Amino acid sequence: MVITAETENFYHDLVEHQQDLIVSFSPEGRLLFVNSAYCDVVGKSKEMLIGSIFMPVTAERYSDVIATQMVKLFRPPYSCTVEQWIQTPKGMRCISWSAKSIVGGGNSVLSITAIGRDITQIRHELKAIKKKDEELMLVVESGAPMYYSHSPDHVLMYVSPRIRSLLGCPPRSGKRAWTDYLTENPINAAGLERTIRAVTSGRREPPYRLEMATGNGDIVRVEVNEIPVVKNGKTISIVGSMVDVTERMQVEEGLAEAEFLIKDFKGGKKRTERPAYPSPAHAKGPLDYFRTLFSRESGEKEDD
To answer: Which residues pair with 235 in a beta bridge?
Structure first.
């Protein structure tokens, strides 16, 4: 194919009028070509740049990552993408480079062409968004409710760090569904039924309570308030919050048992009924529990 002077001028003008940065460099890293956009960014002339070393490494903390990516230019698919922070007359700028090798006979790399785009503003915006997200998360995590989300088939999508702490489960504990943490307590069946109804109907269900087992075998009770997220008439997820009500439920059970005892004492009858929420086998009786609470308030040592 014969390239005429007119064709060469056309492509030259096409490259020179690009807003993106375009460079070509040898396998040894020396610049062979730079367009005007690159010269404007670094504040140097073409004469100063041609033959100089082009190395997209500006800080030691980036060197390993960039070196790993640049190795890809010398083996299939002979391409890579790297980000480079460079010092310019306008300050530090972040350039995203997409590089491709020109391969000759025997798969030897003849030269490398790279196209760069200034993404400094995008990086600053992402950093600002991340900061706002962290501030929002700090506010959210400072309240009593602990937040979570799961898919319609109960697979956890997000779990508050405080929920992980409460249940004693690390991020990679192997449990993927929230139902994996439920005990055999009958109240859990009613809670699961409400979640299924919310997924099916796309409507919010009243709050409910669950009993869960922690990683070390302790029992915790939580009150759950959740909302289905509906898109195009279909529930795509469930988002909700939970509050630890273990002590509250123990107090409620203690009061219920005390009420039965008082009634039995007055009526001279033996108690035959059971509380509405069965307590775990290792839980203390109502009087023991109230004694525990009193000991905490007064600072006295709790009896074993």
So the answer is: 230
